[in-house]
Amino acid sequence: MEDFRTLLVLRAARETGVLDALVASADTPAAVAEQAGVTERAAEVVVAVLVDRGFLTWVSGAVEPTNRMLGFITKTDVRSIGSLPHALDVADALVALPAAMEGDDVPAGGDTDRAFRNRLGAAAARDDAAVRAAVTAAVHERPGAESVVVVGDDAGHHAVECARRGFDVAAHHDDRVVDAIRPVLAAEPVELVGGGVAEPVDAAADLAVIPHTLSRRSPTAAQEVVRAASESVSAAGGTVAVVDTFGSAPGLSAALLATTPGGAVRDADRVASWLADAGLTDVRTSDVPGTEHRVVAGRRRAVQ
């Protein structure tokens, strides 16, 4: 993760058009200064930072973008975006936060197509080991499960991991996300289901997994997701498992305050109460080993 000073320099480069100039044709600080309309001193410093951080490399007296710059060049494949563009969007929102704190509005730009795809890019860049650990912890809550519906999985990583373990998997998300990740998951044995995460899926799945999505939503919206998931699992003991960050996470809390209209890091007990309110029983909380995440899970009582 870049330190905050580097993020602010990158943010300035993006906002002033320096990144656009470098991606287009500018290959020296002087050319950057001319095309972006910044001072040569500023161009020299920003180019030096980008070279130092691995976004540019010097080749025969000119700078060229490296693969690390791909996230600023193309947004077509969310896997090529990486986590940094989203981190810059969060930095933008944090800079604008003082004005937003006087009301309920998220800073402008938080729901642009660029920010949306950058969010998916950050999800696609999530550590593979953390995804595997989350899936292991979630499926542990429903031994013998054969079918899984994964709800609100921004890049589809958790759904793919479930499928690779032999489960019959559906990935349920808003239509906009489904459209964005469909090309990425085309070769994976995962059924994509749109229509909105607050609507149940006619799946009668053994297990519903909700990874890293409730914290981005308001309490009311999050409860609707939980209720829809509970209606998407089998009435004969189907289980809902929520994977997220719970308790104290100041950095994430600040990011959610700045980038969402009602998101927050919540206590596990509060989410557990939402599962209970949705009619789930045996609600319990467990750790996701090797990560800062936890699982809150409950099951539908089997109908006699």
Question: What is the element string, with H for helices and E for strands?
Answer: HHHHEEHHHHHEHEHEEHEHHEE
Mind describing the biggest β-sheet?
7 strands, mixed
| Number of strand elements | 9
C-alpha geometry:
elongated
- Decide which structural class fits the backbone: alpha/beta
- Please name the fourth-level CATH homologous superfamily of the largest domain: Vaccinia Virus protein VP39
In CATH, the architecture of the largest domain is 3-Layer(aba) Sandwich
- As for the CATH topology of the largest domain, it is Rossmann fold
Please give the alpha-carbon distance between the first and last residues.
Answer: 52 Å
Number of domains: 3
| Count of DSSP-assigned helices | 14
Spatial sequence of strands, sheet with the most strands: 5-4-3-6-7-9-8
Gyration radius from CA atoms, angstroms: 21 Å
- Tell me the quaternary state: single chain
**CATH class value of the largest domain:** Alpha Beta
- Per DSSP, what share of the residues sits in E-state strands of 2 or more residues? 15-25%
